[in-house]
């Protein structure tokens, strides 16, 4: 099994890059940490109107549909964050890791030839570690158009600097210097001893330029 994962903020280009890779690889599957979370949210917070059903029926929601507000008062993005991170990860930080490994194992048994798994939603340090322990590689994209402060959007900020600065975590500057969890994040990175395999600055790239840079990086590193 080969495994390529993309990490970044919302609308940083993660899904776009993965879709481009998918079009280039003969035997591959897209597997995301949040796949089962989305199924759960859709099951219990079903689309209440025909208008919604036309926009969020797909297994992978579009960015536009995630902004739709459910009658409970939360957008679908907020529901995913609250249920997936605040509730489920709050109960057990490894819950989506174990689920991902289980589903990856099933995929590998389904393919007689070597499979490439592509993942577009690496958001936490233990998810980076999971990918790398499975023999995969994680690319971090730097585009950040929104500045969302939810934990699922900021948990890898320090690792981003950790990777860019050569792994010296104590010299890193967190994205939010007033974050009460800063020292805890530093200790976590020190203990895990992990960083991104590559950081790609796509802030001034258009989509074709970004996709080209990603595939060239992967070829240069001989990850596929």
Detail the topology: elements first, then pairings.
Elements: E1 2-7, H1 14-24, E2 28-30, H2 35-44, H3 50-56, H4 63-66, H5 76-91, H6 95-110, E3 116-122, H7 125-133, E4 137-141, H8 151-154, H9 157-164, H10 182-192, E5 198-200, H11 207-221
Parallel strand pairs: 1-3, 1-4, 2-3, 4-5
Helix pairs in contact: 1-11
Q: Name the CATH homologous superfamily.
A: P-loop containing nucleotide triphosphate hydrolases
Count the strands? 5
CATH architecture type = 3-Layer(aba) Sandwich
Q: Strand-residue fraction?
A: 5-15%
Number of helices: 11
The biggest beta sheet reads: 5 strands, parallel
Order of helices and strands: EHEHHHHHEHEHHHEH
Alpha-carbon Rg, integer: 17 Å
> What is the CATH topology?
Rossmann fold
* Structural shape: globular
What share of the residues lie within helices? 40-55%
